[in-house]
Specification:
Layout: H1 19-43, H2 49-61, H3 63-74, H4 82-105, H5 107-117, H6 121-133, E1 138-139, E2 142-146, H7 149-161, E3 166-171, H8 178-192, E4 196-202, H9 212-219, E5 223-227, E6 242-245, E7 249-253, H10 260-263, E8 271-272, E9 275-279, H11 283-296, E10 321-327, H12 335-346, E11 350-354, E12 358-359, H13 362-373, E13 377-383, H14 389-405, E14 408-412, E15 416-417, E16 421-424, E17 428-432, E18 436-437, H15 438-443, E19 446-451, H16 454-468, E20 471-474, H17 476-481, H18 484-497
Parallel strand pairs: 3-4, 4-5, 8-15, 11-13, 12-18, 13-14
Antiparallel strand pairs: 1-10, 2-9, 3-6, 6-7, 7-9, 10-19, 11-16, 14-20, 16-17, 17-19
Length: 500
């Protein structure tokens, strides 16, 4: 019997494809699509090319980790989209409607200040501020500058205890300690008398602090909201510090809600900081900023409704001109960073800076060096006793270029320096919450006050000179003395800043 073999028998057997192989293929294709999407987003972005290249390198070397990191800390929320433009336009219209009466009541004052400053570096800043934030120069009935936390919080506690209608508090950090215990008791007493209390705090920055006092306040009727707690928002901080009492007085500056801002706490012998108290028409701008952050974080109700005092004009005395600058990932411009650049390049004699951190982006770094090279007395005072080592080491990587350009660098050694100030030509100054680093100038919600008053600026210049007595000047010899290993460590620390 002859065996007949089918020609089909010569074909190879079907290859068995396991479920695991299918899943792996799908994951690979998904990763490739994600990488392609991120690469396209980066290439078409309008950020600093060095930042884009740094991210492309991370994606190429560690794709999975790179995609995760990019999702949390790399996306550019300032990038224009039709929806974002629509939201910005709606917010601008809302702010204009709320602030319109204040602007109209003080139109003559604003025009007079702008005319007096026209053609000067300060005049250029008034125009920049109005264009990039929408807030013009407004009068303050009074400006009080605090250099000690004990003085600022004693005044704030007393003013809160006398509040009749509302207390709005916004802080990056709200600890649980001796100060917050005193604040809690004052707020509970005011709540019992019908005063409206709203509190905003930064969720991630306060994650490690107990919330019992905040919960107690919420149970008593206060409205308490954490900021930026969604996963996609974890890289962004509400770094503003604002306390508004009855819509008539505002406190702002570097000080958070914590006892260490009074006595240095367990870590520091001294906590050197600067804060402001303002009264008058300019306070209305801070109420608008509070309301904007409240709405952004989905707080109940509208803090503006029925709470702003009636608009009024300047009192007619020596009302200091103040312009509020606000910057965040939601604003189309890096307004405070741009203000710093205008200040540096426009100053006629000197620019004296205080900032606990120094991690500037390229435009700000260039402005600092160019100003010094052109003969301006540029001084940078930062802390010499750090609270965080990574940004402290990163700052040292910028020192060589600054020193070579003629910038004088000082490190405050009496304790921790946390003030964020700029004195320009001894004639006007900036005091606020914004550091000279890329997180503050690009990512954080920040607020600063430009005070166009020669007396206040001269007073703060004197304070700056007092602080210099607690500093050691960092020279080019100090930089070389760091050694190769330390300079390499500093350069590596600096690289991380380019991923923001």
């Amino acid at each position: 019997m002859i065996a007949v073999t089918s020609p089909l028998a010569a074909l190879p057997a079907p290859v068995a494809v396991s479920l695991a192989q299918i899943v792996a293929l799908v994951l690979l294709l998904g990763l490739l699509a994600a990488v392609a999407g991120v690469v396209v987003a980066l290439v078409t972005d309008d950020r600093d090319p060095t930042t884009i290249l740094a991210w492309l390198l991370v994606i190429a070397l560690v794709p999975v980790l790179g995609i995760v990191l990019y999702f949390f800390i790399g996306r550019n929320y300032r990038r224009d989209t039709p929806e974002r433009d629509r939201l910005r336009a709606a917010a601008a219209r809302r702010d204009a409607a709320v602030l319109g009466p204040t602007y109209e009541a003080n139109a003559g004052y604003t025009a007079q200040v702008e005319q007096r400053l026209a053609g000067t570096p300060a005049g250029k800043l008034t125009v920049l501020g109005r264009r990039v934030t929408g807030f013009p120069v407004l009068p303050a009935d009074s400006v009080e500058v605090y250099h000690r936390g004990a003085d600022k919080f004693a005044r704030l506690l007393a003013e809160m205890a006398g509040a009749q209608r509302q207390i709005h508090l916004m802080y990056l950090i709200w600890q649980r300690d001796e100060l917050t215990a005193r604040v809690t008791e004052v707020l509970l007493e005011r709540l019992a008398h019908g005063v409206k209390v709203r509190i905003l705090y930064d969720w991630l920055s306060c994650l490690r602090y107990p919330k019992a006092e905040l919960k107690r306040l919420a149970a008593a009727g206060a409205e308490v909201k954490p900021c930026y707690r969604r996963l996609a928002q974890l890289n962004y901080r509400n770094h503003m510090k604002i306390a508004v009492i009855d819509g008539t007085a505002v406190y702002t500056g570097g000080m958070n809600m914590a006892q260490e801002y009074i006595d240095g706490g367990a870590r520091f012998a001294v906590w050197r900081d600067t804060s402001l108290r303002l009264t008058g028409p300019v306070v209305a701008v801070f109420e608008v900023l509070f309301a904007a952050i409240w709405r952004l974080n989905k707080g109940r109700g509208d803090p503006e409704t029925g709470h702003l005092p009636p608009a009024r004009a300047a009192t007619g005395g020596a009302d200091p001109p103040v312009q509020v600058l606000h910057s965040s990932v939601a604003t189309p411009f890096k307004s405070i960073r741009d203000a710093y650049i205008v200040v540096l390049l426009g100053a006629r004699e000197k620019v004296w800076i205080q900032s606990p951190y120094l991690v500037p982006d390229e435009p700000l770094m260039t402005a600092m060096c160019a100003a010094a090279l052109s003969g301006t007395d540029v001084r940078l005072m930062m802390t010499g006793v750090p609270d965080r080592t990574l940004p402290f080491h990163a700052a040292h990587a910028y020192y060589k270029q600054l020193l070579d350009s003629g910038v004088k660098v000082y490190q405050y050694t009496a304790g921790f320096l946390h003030a964020k100030t700029v004195v320009v030509d001894g004639q006007w100054c900036i005091i606020g919450t914004c550091n000279f680093d890329v997180r503050s100038t690009i990512l954080h919600d920040e607020v600063s006050c430009v005070i166009y008053d020669e007396g206040i600026a001269a007073d703060y210049a004197a304070v700056y000179e007092d602080d210099l007595r607690e500093c050691r000047q960092f020279t080019i010899a100090d930089w070389w003395a760091l050694g190769r290993r330390a300079r390499l460590r500093n350069s590596v620390s600096r690289l991380f800043s380019r991923l923001l």
